[in-house]
Amino acid sequence: MIQANDPARPPIQVACIQFEPKFGDVEGNVARSSELIRAAAQAGAKLIVLPELANTGYVFESSDEASALAEAVPGGRTATAWSALAVELGVHIVAGIAERSGGRLFNAALVTGPDGFIGVYRKAHLWNRENLFFVKGDVGFPVFDTGLGKIGVAICYDGWFPETFRQLALAGAEIVCVPTNWVPMPGQPEGEAAMANTLHRAAAHSNGVFIACADRVGVERGQPFEGQSLIIGTKGWTLSGPASRDRPEILTATVDLDEAGRKDLSDFNSVLSDRRTDVYG
What we know:
The protein is of the alpha/beta class. It is built from eight helices and 16 strands. It has a six-stranded mixed sheet. Helix 1 (26-42) packs parallel to helix 3. The two termini are 33 Å apart. InterPro entries: Aliph_Amidase/BUP, C-N_Hydrolase, C-N_Hydrolase_sf.
């Protein structure tokens, strides 16, 4: 496996797929997302990110409804389909999924690649009514060491916590993939860009990591979503996007993950090594 900071490691193309899952239509959502994954792979993408809960939709009305749509990871039909596609196409996929494990439900993200299933991340910070259906994640913030590089994962509201990205960066993550379903924030002025764009650009800048955010679009059971997916470089500048608020899109950007390994801002400054752990831990 290629190791971090190996100068022979080539840049890779990352894709964020912004689309509109249909609530409860797991078969249709998997089919549509698979078409879009194929399109991204055909265009050269090696790391492909899908939205949060991309297989089920987001606005659950009851625990029974959530339970009926959740499935095992990696053994369920969605995980099996996405993993088989990753193997077929020779790509890595990070995709939001409703996971059932041991009688508990998690808002999760599947990580899979050319050799099959790699792992799962479970959302640490639950937003609003998610607390009625899901259990808070119990796996911490794992970093997956892959053939492309070191991949971290966060889901939607995780991005409101600086600790999420700091933990991942300190653990060696080079790129953080963010399946998300951003919604308008309280008090958001008409036409204002998603607050998430500001938060994730700041996180990339403050931690020296790439961040790839794949949001959804549409209105589901009265809940509008923000769209505006984007891919951000290690200095916080946008490499691709933001996408539109309301149209399916595939964003792509070419990234050199070795840039994340340096994390330098000037000849004298590195955002992680400059931390005053003697002052604030």
